[in-house]
Amino acid sequence: RGGIRVFGDGSLIEKNVIHDVPGHGIAVEAIDSSTPSLQNTITQNSIYNNGGISIDLDQTHTDGTVNPNGDGVTPNDGATDSGQQNNGLDYPIFTLAELDGSNLHVQGYVGTSGHHLSGPFTIEVYKSDDDGNNNGEVEVDDGLSVPHGEGRWYLGSCMSASDGTFDCALPVPNGVSLGAGDAITGTATDEDGNTSEFGANKAVAEKSPYAGRDVGPRGLCGDLGW
After folding, report:
1. Which residues touch 185 (CB under 8 Å, ≥6 apart)?
2. How do residues 51-87 score in pLDDT, each as one tens digit?
3. Which pLDDT belongs to residue 224?
4. Residue pLDDT, tens place only, 23-61
5. pTM for this prediction
6. Whole-number Å distance between alpha carbons of 114 and 99
7. Using omega within 30 degrees of 0 as the cis cutoff, is the peptide bond preceding 191 cis?
């Protein structure tokens, strides 16, 4: 069983700690075969050490199944569908996660590499706590099996552009340890309040001290005074 199961529209699930449940952390389920659950906002929760993924938009058990408990990762397809839970909203794909001092620089998009969804979206970023049972594809039929979360430590949020892309600098909150080699994940929420599942984890890298610098004709040796 999951930690929280949602049947219906317009729920706000905010600032909960959900851990050590045998199923998914939060599962959004269809009301019946013709009525999806929509506009459910899931924000700033700490979800970890569960038997499945952090947020599961169950697009499989839509036939009135008794006690449904999710279907695992729903990979991005570059589309929305009003007949699916939370509009079938794709999660964010991170193309960059770079630590620059006490700031985390993230870039990415909502959708697929071939088709970004039109925003704007609120992108929430989390430090991941991968317990080994959150794997799935990133895009439909890509054949991958990679971790998606869980989203344990909330780091902050920013807005995407209207084309679904984002480029943000987030101050790392006090009390959260984030370093090179750690992983981040995130969710997207649209203007109607539909929140996605958590996206695939992205490893954090340290920003190079020479990024963006003109090292001159003598290269780094000249820059260092050699």
Report:
1. 94, 125, 126, 128, 148, 149, 150, 151, 198, 199, 200, 201, 202
2. 999 999 999 987 766 667 789 999 999 999 999 999 9
3. 47
4. 999 999 999 889 999 999 999 999 999 999 999 999 998
5. 0.91
6. 27
7. no
CA 203 remoteness from chain centre? 13
> Residues 149, 49, 195, CA angle at the centre, nearest 5°?
40
State the greatest distance between any 2 C-alpha atoms of the chain, in Å, as a whole number: 73
List CB contacts of 194: < 8 A, sequence separation 6 or more: 38, 39, 40, 41, 86, 87, 89
Q: How many CB atoms lie within 10 A of CB 177?
A: 8
Contacts 24+ apart (CB under 8 A), 2-9: 2/26, 2/27, 2/50, 2/52, 2/56, 2/69, 2/70, 3/47, 3/50, 5/29, 5/68, 5/69, 6/37, 6/40, 7/31, 7/37, 8/37, 9/37, 9/38, 9/39, 9/40
CB burial class (10 A; 0-12, 13-18, 19+) of residue 154? middle
Please work out, in degrees rounded to the nearest 5, the angle formed at the alpha carbon of residue 199 by the alpha carbons of 207 and 21. Answer: 120
CA separation for the pair 62, 76 (Å, rounded): 19
Distance between CA atoms of residues 158 and 119, nearest Å: 12
